[in-house]
Queue: 2 jobs
Job 1
Amino acid sequence: MRPMTLTTMLAACAVASACGGGDDGPDTGFDCLFANCKNSQDIQVSDLSARYEVTQEGTRVTAVSSVGYRYNLLTVVRVTGGDTLTLSSGVQSREMHPTDASWWHASASLDGLGESPTVSVDFKRGTQVERGTVTLPKVFSIVSPTGAVVLKHSDGQLLATLTTLASDHLVTQVNGNCRRADGTQFPINTTLTPAYQSAQPTGHLYRISVSLLDSEIAFENQQAQPGNLSAVDRCELTLQWRSEAYGTTPAGMHPSSSIVGVTKQSMPLSYLAQQ
């Protein structure tokens, strides 16, 4: 079995009946067994590391936040004690609320926004306001390939044409499951950087090499079950093509803070590793 990550642990907490939490305040039980839990009200704003991801699908923009302590990746900071997070764009504004019992993540959405809007997330403590701002990349589509894509090992590469801009920063998240020749399976959760190839009449062409995909699958295979030498036979994957833009971080918060705007499209992919 693959070891649980911190994110997986906190996700499990969200559905565990013992976690509690809710409108009365953050839970301090299961999740805090695996992470150093702190409340934002007890930490100087300059020591808070705010991480915001803002996505656009159609005319809806959604922001998800997580707050940490300096560079410490194992510290969970819950926004408490009158501290607030607010998502805004133009005249629209909405307070962000916890998405799970741990209160580590908060979210809010705005509707009716146009293409590539500029949005802000404000952390507020009393009269102090720390703002992160980002302009989202253009919403794009996948021109080709379309439908359920089948990639063979012998193909050597996956080519995709997207209606992105040549200047866009593109990454591909890969999620799914792979089956070994002995019938056992293991999960895939990784990120690839596709290689830009050329401009096309309908967009821009990107390439993911089979060798790059194979190396990531091999790594995930050994992480899931070290020592299993059975060959990987087939993978059922979802490729999420993500155009990302990094914005201006809150000046008064910790320098490890970040805000990223994302537009994305998904592609189902069957990878035949032995053909």
Job 2
Amino acid sequence: MAQHPTPRVIRAYSLPVQQFDHLKNYQRSLQFAADAEAGTPAREGDAHWITNSQTLAHIIHHHGLVATVAVRSDMHVGPFVSALYMGDLVAGQPEVQL
């Protein structure tokens, strides 16, 4: 029977302050939504408790989506995000070819 390797552990508090703050703020947002859906605040171990790992998975997923949209826009991720932030790039409807 194959043995699974011991998972690597990344401690959230070992992240640089800015990334840790981002992780915890997003985790609070996800937890708030999960609590509202469940109708009750979660405690650690509850089915709707949001872990650091789940939060990080959400962040990575969304970063992947942003990268996909940037590539489809023929841009690199950095300039794409900067343009969004600066208001130089806005979402719009595709033009219809007649």
